[in-house]
Every structure is written in C-alpha cells, then in structure tokens.
Amino acid sequence: MAEETPRSASREAAGVEAAAQPAAAASRDAAGDAPSAVHAIAANAAADPPATPAPKRNDIAQLLDFAGGRKPLTYVGLAISAISQLLGFVPYVCIWLVARDLIEVAPNWQAAQGIAAYGWWAIGGAIASIAAYFLALMCTHLAAFRAASNMRKQTTEHLMRLPLGYFDAHATGELRRVIDGCAASTESLLAHVLPDAAGSIAMVVGMLALLFAFDWRLGLACLVPVVISICCLMTMMSGKGMEFMKSYMGALVRMNETGTEYVRGIPVVKVFQQTVYSFKAFHDAIADYARMAQDYAGTFCRKPQVFQLSVLNGLVVFLLPVAFILAPGEADFPRFVADFAFYAIFSAVIPTAMAKLMFMSEASQMAGDSLGRVRAILEAKPLETPANPQPIEGGDVRFEYVSFAYEGTETNALDDVSFEVPAVTTLALVGPSGGGKSTCASLVPRFWDATAGRVLVGGVDVRDADPHELMDKIAFVFQTNRLFSGTLEENVRAAKPDATREQVLAALRAAQCDDIVAKLPQGVDTRLGAGGAYLSGGEVQRVALARAILKAAPIVVLDEATAFADPENEALIQRAFAKLAENRTLIMIAHRLSTVVGADQIVVLDQGRVAERGTHAELVEAGGLYASMWADYEQAASWKIAGAQTEAPAMKGGEA
After folding, report:
1. What interhelical angle do 216-237 and 194-214 show, nearest 10?
2. How far apart are CA 175 and CA 172, in angstroms?
C-alpha cells in the first residue's frame, strides 16, 4: 500500500495534466496580476548567478508579492489599523480629563462643566476606532484572499510543469498540506496578524508617549513589566522556540501525509479487524507531534509564559509602591491622584498590546516556515524546454548507454542500458522485481531525465523535444488507473478532449467495454465515482485502454496492465491489447510471462542491467534467466491445491 500511494499520484497527475494546464492559465488571467512570483523564482533559478548577491527580502515582503495588484491594499490597511489603535487611546485620555476636573473641584462636583463633552469625545473616539479597524481588515482581507488564491494557483500550475517522477518522491498528502494548509496560514497572517501588528506597534508608540506625558515616574513603573514581558517572549520565540516552529510545521505535514495513506488503507485495516495502532506510521506521527507539543508547551514555555502573564496582569504591583513613595512629596496632590487614576486604568491596555505582539511573532514564524515549503515547490526544477525543439518523426524508441539514479540514492537504478524498439513492433520488459523495468519505461515520456546516456523517440533525444509533443506521441496504461468523478464518456474523452461522441464509443468498443456500457443505467452518460456507479478493477483497466486507444498515440507504454484483472477481464484486456497494438510501437512491462510470448523482442533486466535480449523461443533455448523465470511461471500455472484432490477419496471412503 505504501508503494502504490506515490505511484498513484504520478498516474493521477499524468491523467489530468492536459486539462489542468488550460485551467491554470485561465486562473492567471482571472487574477489579473503582475508577473507571478513563481515566474520570478523560476527565472532566477534558470539565470546565471549575479556577480553581487541581491539583498535577501524578508518573508512578509515575499508573501505580499503573491497579492499582485492588491498588494497596496495591505499597506493601506496597515496604516488605517495604526490610526485605529491611536483613536482607541481617546477614551483613556477623556477618562483622565474627567478625573482631573472632578478632583480639582472636589467636593463641588457640579463645578466641572466639561465632563459631558469628554464623554461624547470618548464615545466618538471609540466608534471611530472600531470603524477604522473594520475598514483596515477589509483592505487586508482583500489582499490576503488574493495572495492565498495566487499561492494555490501558482504552486498547482508549477506542479503541472514538473516531471511526473516528482510525484513519486513527494506524496499527495504532503503536497496537499503544503498547497492548502500553508496558503491558509499565510492568509491568516496577512488578513489578521499584520494589521494587528501595525496596530500593536502604534499602540506601543502611543503608549510610551502617554506613559511619559503625565508623570514619567509612574510611566516608568508601568514600563518595567513590559520590558520583562518582551524578554520572556524573546526567550520563547527565539533559539529553541524557532526550531520548535519548524518541527511543528513538519509534524503537521507528516501527519497529513501518513493520514492520507491510512485513509486509503482503511479497507485493509477493517478486513483484519485492526485499530489505528496497526498503521504504525500514522500512529507514530501523531505520537511524535503530541510529545513535541507537550514538551515545548509544558516544559520549555511554561515558566516564561506564566511569569510574563503574571507580571503583565499584576502591573499594579509595580505601580502602587511607586505611588506610595512619591505621594508624600507631591506639591499638587490632586493632580498626582488624577495621574495615578489614569495609569491604573490605562494599564489594562498593556496586556492586550503584548498579547498581540506575541501572536504576531508566532504567526510570523509559521508563515515563514509555510513560505519556505511553498518556495521548495516553486523552486523545484521543471522540465527543461529546448529553445529550438526538434520535431519527433517516427515511432521508434532507442536507449543508448542509459544510466539513471534516483535522487538521494547512491546506487544506479539503471546502469548502461542499451536497446532499440523499431517502429510498429512490440518490446516486452521482464525481469525480477526491482530490476529497473518501470524505471526504464518512465524515462521514455520524461518522468525523469537520464543521468547518463540518451533516450531517443523518433530519432530525437527526449530532452531536445517539445514536452507537449512528446506527451502527444505516447499513451500510458498503468497497473493502477484512476477514473475521475464524471461520466464514462468524460473519463474516456480525457485522453482527447476534442474527440466526438462517435470516436469515444468506437474506442470503448475496441477496448472490449460493450458489457460495461450495457450494464450502466445511462450508458456512457452514467456518472462514475461518488454518487454514481462503480467499476471493478478489471473494468477500470479496460476504460483506461479505451483512453489509450482514443488518444491514438504512435507509442504505447503498458505497465503490467493485467496485474489486477480476473481471468474474464484479462481475456478481454488481451483482445483490447491486440487492437491497441495495431500500427503502434508497444512497450510493455509484464510479470505474467504469458502476455509477452508473442512480443517481437524481449529485454530481460536484472539489477538495472540488460541480462538478456531476444524472442521468447530464443531466450527459452538459451537457458538463462528468462528460461528460469519461464520454468517457474509454468510450474506456478499448473499448481493445484493438493488437499482438494486427497480429501474427496477420503470422504467417499467414509461414506462407504
């Protein structure tokens, strides 16, 4: 199951590539933005390194690039948010003015004439602050939605330009977490955290001004817990805290990846009546995340967080002693009382400001990590398109001294492989598991590029051909094929979007799908998948063959297309093979040697090298590896359950 997951991603990507590219282009047109960040990154990757390195831009600036034409709205929103926080100080100043006037005329309270005006000013300031904050969020949300949308579109578009082998090395759960989850976290940063951060900075500046505006000594007493709180935050958010955020995001990706595999494996888990613990990778991912989060929150952050919250919310502990020390020496005691009242009330603002700064730091770290993961996708090297692509003429395939090693491995999967497949002939790749058969076939359509040597199609090195033309020349049928949620006709037409209904029906007939069409309630108009009809594994294979027949490509690659078919479906698939192979070059990977007996040429691969080459009769007569495999196959084909033969006589004798 673990092996099939990444390969399924490759197959799914191969099936939707033609449809997704126009959709991605339409998305770019709809966005109406300036040149996208992905194009800039790709251009920088392709260009020669500059003589002097450009200054590194911070993560926030790079995230804002995704907003395109709405980027200025973010700056407008930040400015309005800062104004909103400054307007929020108006009620506190009005409270101080009310206290000052009342204390000056005490106990003759009616002599204070301006109290009502102060009240209206306070209400007006509060309303203006709320309205400005709402307007600021409107601006930042518009920019954030565009940034998140463009991030998803651009990463998806870039994925469609990567070699299909990329999806073997990156599981679908991981990619979905990066594209969707990381875009969501950056959306929250741009829409909420940034305007709150701008407001917090304005609040801190305004707070410092107000703290020292009336009585610098009391203001200094209020500032002490702020300094202590900042030191605690720096302790939690730097060093080990920064490493934790990277581990936290990595744990989320791992849980998503293993969770996807677990969901796909639920049928197996249920058949054997197992629990989540039976899927060790998923269980370990959850346990590692829980352990990491508990250690960080319970061990590393507990003391500084408790201390900073206690200091901020107990600010009066710093303010009261200073007031008692200063009060006896005050010449204008009523004014001093009014100032103390202001600082006592205004101190409630300080914990709010510090909490916003804490959330800003946390969200910034998460966004930085998310941007790094998105950037890793955008910087993945796409298929190189030659400046002057050579046209592919003919349907022959040739390997010339080809070697290939997967990324991160030291051993070659293919080593100095050479063979030729003339046009309109059939080549079978056989050999032990892990011998390099699928790797060999994947180099023909450029799922990967050869490490050494050349792969030629129609006499042209695949690296010198237009990737779109190369894909048009090759059709695929894999072990595991996927059908989309759509009608049977739509699923077949995915291979050739401009095909007519008559052409689709003809392809289905050629693929021996008449019985499938007959049993579906609405025939080819029946919806498949969720909410519709379901097909068996063998039936799905025949529909995949219909796709390949409809595409009418001169070269067809079959990767063990009968692997999961029952005998009845296998017989139908074999007939479809005969139709598919007409006037085409056929490269087939097979484990059932009965399917390759009639091949024009058989290449036996063992440990990445060509062990033998020839027809079935020649290889059997040679007595090498293929002959040994054929003998094993014949023995397996004639295998019978011995118990079934011995049990019957015993029962008959018992009855006698």
Report:
1. 150
2. 5
Distance, CA of 500 to chain centre:
36
Q: How far apart are CA 501 and CA 548, in angstroms?
A: 16
Neighbours of 367 (CB within 10 A): 23
3-state secondary structure of 550: helix
Cα torsion at 183, 186, 192, 197 (round to 10°)? Answer: 180
CA distance to 285, 393, 417, 445, 556, per residue, from 470 (Å): 40, 11, 21, 7, 12
Quick one: pLDDT at residue 80? Answer: 94
Please tell me the predicted confidence (pLDDT) of residue 561: 58
Ranges under pLDDT 70 in the chain: 1-59, 164-165, 168-174, 177, 181, 237-243, 245-246, 248-249, 264-279, 296, 298-299, 357-369, 479-481, 530, 560-570, 637-656
- Most distant CA pair in the chain, distance: 126
- C-alpha closest to that of 477 among 616, 574, 395: 574
Q: Which of 339, 359, 99 is nearest to 222 (CA)?
A: 339
3-state helix, strand, coil in the chain (%, to 5): 65, 10, 25
Q: CA torsion angle for 171, 172, 178, 180 (degrees, to 10)?
A: -170
What DSSP string runs through 9-58?
Answer: HHHHHHHHHHHHHHHHHHHHHHHT-SS-HHHHHHHHHHSPPPSSPPPPPP
Chain position carrying tokens 């007409």: 582
pLDDT at 41: 39
Secondary structure of 52-68 in the HEC alphabet? CCCCCCCHHHHHHHCCH
User: Distance between alpha carbon 490 and the CA centroid of its chain, in Å?
Assistant: 27
Angle between helices 537-551 and 567-580 (to 10 degrees): 0
Query: Within a 13 Å sphere around the CA of 592, how many CA atoms are in the beta-carbon half?
Result: 16
Asked whether the beta carbons of 99 and 338 are under 8 A apart, the reply is yes
SS3 239: coil
Q: What is the pLDDT of residue 419?
A: 94
- The closest alpha carbon to 515, from 475, 488, 494, belongs to 488
**Rounded CA gap, 345 and 199, in Å?**
20
Question: Do 425 and 554 form a contact (C-beta atoms < 8 A)?
Answer: no
> By C-alpha distance, which of 217, 224, 221 is closest to 319?
221
3-state DSSP call for residue 599? coil
Q: How many helices (H) and strands (E) does the chain have?
A: 28, 12
Pairing mode, strands 426-430 and 585-589: parallel
What is the edge-to-edge ordering of all strands in the sheet holding 414-421? 414-421, 397-404, 452-457, 460-461
Instruction: Phi first, then psi: give them for residue 493, nearest 5 degrees.
Output: -70, -15
474: β partners: 555
Q: Which two tokens stand for residue 632?
A: 């094993």
The H-or-E segment that residue 557 falls in is: strand 555-559
Residue type, 68: G
Closest C-alpha to 245, from 194, 281, 296, 286: 296
Instruction: Please say whether the dihedral angle defined by the alpha carbons of residues 513, 478, 501 and 522, taken in this order, is positive or negative.
Output: positive
Four-point Cα dihedral 77, 79, 84, 90, nearest 10: -170
Contact assessment for residue 258 and residue 285, using Cβ atoms and an 8 Å cutoff: yes
CA contacts within 13 A on the Cβ side of 150: 28
Both tokens of 551, joined, read: 């595409």
- 8 Å CB contact between 130 and 199: no
Nearest to 480 by CA among 160, 169, 14: 14
